[in-house]
Amino acid sequence: MGDGGKWVCDPHRLKARPNCLIYSAGSNGDFGFEVHMKKVMPHCEIHTFDQRRYTCPQNVCIFHQITFGNGTHPNNSKSWATILEELGHTQRKIDVLKIDIEGGEYSFFSFLMQSSTKSLPQQILVEVHPNKPNNIHAFFELLRKHHYAIFNKEPNLIAGSQFFEYAFFKLNSEFFKALPTNATKK
After folding, report:
1. Record's Pfam families (predicted)?
2. 151 vs 116: CA distance, rounded Å
3. Which one, of 83, 93, 107, lies nearest residue 21 by Cα?
4. Does the residue 77 lie in any domain?
């Protein structure tokens, strides 16, 4: 609980994937998530992204000084598609995206969800920062529209009462189809 660990759904399945790929954005120099993931799943390839320059612990991750965005931000912003292309990951599945970008999640996720469906991560672990209620509602609606379901929520007790850690899993679109309203029981 707090500002510590993140929840990953079905880590046993990730252990079985020979080309597991994890992205971690907004490390702020703290590589605890990456170190633990590498310990639990040593075969996973982990890429860490941040605006500032840091150095990943040896044999844990690959660091990139990049700001996630739409590619027009003056602070070295790159779009999701550009990042995947530059890293040679356009044909690979992103298993986990852990992201803590201090309120930037609202604008970044609108850019992320414009990407092709096959490039969207299977799991998203995100710290949601306080914002206007309409932005928060639109954020969750955007994730639902792209077939993500919450599998964990916990307060970030260190940051404050309005900060929450969420974990989402991308489900088959059939899961979200409503039952017909005129369905009758036979």
Report:
1. Methyltransf_22 (PF13383)
2. 23
3. 93
4. yes
| Number of domains within the chain | 1
Q: H-type helices in 93-145, by residue range?
A: 105-112, 133-145
14, 153, 168, 7: CA torsion to nearest 10: -10
Q: Alpha carbon of 4 to those of 50, 86, 110: distances in Å?
A: 18, 30, 26
Q: Identify whether 6 is part of a domain.
A: no
CATH code (residue 125)? 3.40.50.150
pTM for this model (two decimals): 0.86
φ, ψ (nearest 5 deg) of residue 17: -85, 115
Give the range of the structural domain holding residue 125, as residue numbers without chain letter: 11-172
Rounded to the nearest 10°, the torsion over CA 151, 157, 160, 165 is -20
Q: For residues 76 and 74, what is the distance between their CA atoms, to the nearest angstrom?
A: 6
